[in-house]
Specification:
Blueprint: E1 7-9, E2 17-21, H1 26-38, E3 40-46, H2 52-63, E4 67-71, E5 74-80, E6 92-93, H3 98-109, E7 114-118, H4 129-137, E8 141-144, H5 145-148, E9 150-156, E10 164-166, H6 172-182, E11 187-192, H7 200-207, E12 213-215, E13 218-223, E14 231-233, H8 238-250, E15 255-262, H9 269-277, E16 280-289, E17 292-300, E18 304-305, E19 308-309, H10 321-328, E20 331-337, H11 350-360, E21 365-368, E22 371-376, E23 385-388, H12 393-402, E24 410-413, H13 425-433
Parallel strand pairs: 2-15, 3-14, 6-7, 10-11, 18-20, 19-20, 23-24
Antiparallel strand pairs: 1-24, 3-5, 4-5, 7-9, 8-9, 11-13, 12-13, 15-17, 16-17, 20-22, 21-22
Helix pairs in contact: 1-2, 1-7, 3-6, 4-6, 8-10, 8-12, 10-11
The structure holds shikimate-3-phosphate (S3P).
Length: about 425
Amino acid sequence: MIDVTDLEFKGSGKPLNGELKMPGDKSISHRAVIFGAIAHGVTTVEGFLRGNDCISTLQCMRALGVQIDESGDHLTINGQGFDGLSEPNRVLDVGNSGTTIRLLSGLLSALPFYSVLAGDVSIHRRPMGRVIRPLMEMGADLWGRSGDSYAPISIKGRKLHPIDYHLPVASAQVKSALILAGLQTEGKTTLTEPGASRDHTERMLRAFGGTIRTEGLVHELVGPQYLTGTDIRVPGDFSSAAFFIAAALLTPDSHLVLRSVGMNPTRTGMIVVLEKMGAKVSLVNKKEWNGEPVCDIVIDHAQLRAAEIGGALIPQLIDEIPILALIATEAEGTTVIRDASELKVKETNRIRTTVDELKRIGADIEETEDGMIIHGHPGRRFSGGPADSSGDHRIGMMLAVASQKSDAPVVVRQAEAIAVSFPTFRDQLAQIQR
Ligand code: S3P
């Protein structure tokens, strides 16, 4: 049982200045542990995100018999291939993590033992049919609540057959689950996405010596594949950096440098939007770690204008929409976000929680069927006061950053949720406010 914590966030009233190292990328950290476990030989991971979501994946892999040594954000994984995984003697607890439950559903469907995946209240409300159905098409024996739609998910693993599947939603979690099943299945698995979702699984698979062919929105892999352990360096999480980018954009005269942030183009749609809005963002010191682009982000405060956000860009900034909504309150004009219905099935209904909580502290914002409309008033401050993360880490951090333009402190209820992806958030915000 996690204690419910109210945390008070107070804008310093001063420009934000300094250099920060962002915590490891959440998506890449999950995948590093999973691939390290299914590869043969030793994998080391440097910069692993010690957030609750990734720790859930780590504990699940241990419960499946994988030996993982930890020393701070450094992991050593003793992979013994798919065959090295063994039946867990308890329910696998995924906590709040959609990535853990969906990716492991795919992995476990092809392994010859019984397993059950369950998590917290929020995870049991999120749609699992999107991963259960295509796995059933591959011949998997797995079940979920309410007609195979929700967790807990129970799985009796068995030999699968390949499919040619068109994903109904652009979801990296579903795509990755099917890749993890396809890697263990004899023959060619073909996956076609309706839009490009993040491609960390494909990049990581190649880093471990595996093969997947991608042409446009079509992915093809031939199984079974033999993967070899490697050394993974996890870049900083762009989605975490987004909160500091926003803090600088809301605070006149700010100048921040964010070091070694992952810049995978399937994740950085927010930069495209910010450039349209007139933000000053420079990407410097570019490099590549395990096939993932990385750079430092330099951000200066600038006057912004409103933008229209929708279409194919949405999957590339889906996790940044709450913080983009906050940024838009400071832009001249009306910002419209559309085509973002997927937000309704995240950790919370993020259209609803973003609009309700921002309105409560003083923003001029409306909910729509598939997004929101934000009326920007540059320089106009929020009243601040109580607000609720609703147990959603990204809503909690967005509200904390909103304190930069609030008269009274913003008191975030259920602020403990922030540790899901960014345990050092509060300390690092305080560091640049000094
Ligand atoms: C993630 C994929 C995205 C994203 C989530 C992490 C991943 O979800 O919103 O925070 O690590 O694969 P979808 O699978 O719905 O795209």
